[in-house]
Amino acid sequence: MAGTQSRAVGAHYDVGVSEIIELARRAREASYALADASRATKDAALHAMAAALRENTDVIVAANAVDVAAAREAGTPESTVDRLALNPARVDGMAAGLEQLAGLTDPVGEVVRGYTLPNGLELRQVRVPFGVVGIIYEARPNVTADAAGICLKSGNAVLLRGSSSAAASNTAIIGVLRDAAALCGLPADVIQGVATDRAAVKELMQARGLVDVLIPRGGAGLIQTVVGESSVPVIETGVGNCHVYIDAEADLELGLEILLNSKTQRPSVCNAAESLLVHSAVADEFLARALPALVEAGVTVHGDSAVVAASKNTPASVDAGGAGVVAATEEDFGTEYNSLDLSAAVVDSLEDAVQHIRRYSSGHTEAIITRSQSAARRFTQAVDSAAVVVNASTRFTDGGEFGFGAEIGISTQKLHARGPMGLPEMTSTKYIVTGEGQIRT
Fewest CB atoms within 10 Å of the CB: 245, 294, 320, 334? Predict the structure, then answer.
């Protein structure tokens, strides 16, 4: 019945059908074939897609070079260029992600729960694909392969709308993936690219009945636009204003190592730390170590008055490259920098740290560094984010690191999915009811 309903809704677009609606209709038709595909067929397609990426590395990197050159010519910050750039190693990583997906359990058909009712009816709740998923994302072209792979494995056709800054890269990647899927007997239209102009995006957001769910990945502006303007249901992925809190009972050497990894290992991603909180009981000692180390790593620390005062006792003044300690504004504490910038504040208690996080956090990932079990327990209970980490880097909030394979994004909402969205999160469920003639009285 659901398929019949979708086709009926699609009939609304028969007259003067637009390119976007035609893409969505083709995706809908392809989704029926994909829903019927066996795990063996889907896994073979994923392996073929991985091999094709490797075989076409030169083509993909050359296309990406066009995007990177255009971005630099437009004055794009290097942190954003880093998110955009591909090289052979990153293409190989995209391929490896697809291969890892092939090795994961197929979520489609999994029985979530099942039992026999008192009247003898057998009830099973099973995972099924959404059908057609639209993904609107910015910059990073590796998302193209990740999203296509996850959607294919979970039985969903996908409409991929990347940013105009990655248009050449995404066109090359999508072409390679479509050809590989078709060679394995799947419709090429299970993977399609969408034009980057605003009119096309707006039409995609209004294609309710043809597109089952939209997932935005990117900055706060993009996400809010999709959430606010879409008539298609949206799974909201959030920005990452992630915190590291150094507790009064912290191992300070461990805390410094975790802070530097959280901030500097790859600052342009959503699970990088953007804010540091330090308990006043250890602030002098910790900041005396941390501020010079952060500056040496090229970080500009946007500190409150206590952090700025502490910097005067360390070699942490602003250097010629811009790294150093500067006075923070109110806006700094709520900012996802995606760069070598970090807001920092001294708090008088764990509860003050919790209150600060509640006020400024985006609900992505927060970490506490402590040797106190009671402090860790209180922090994990009181902080309401998708991931709460004890004595480890914020950089671990990631589908691959969690063992899910590649991810669609990190959901910071509370309905349907929260945290890294892997294969199970890309399915819905339906109930299968089996009887022997029972009627309701």
Answer: 320
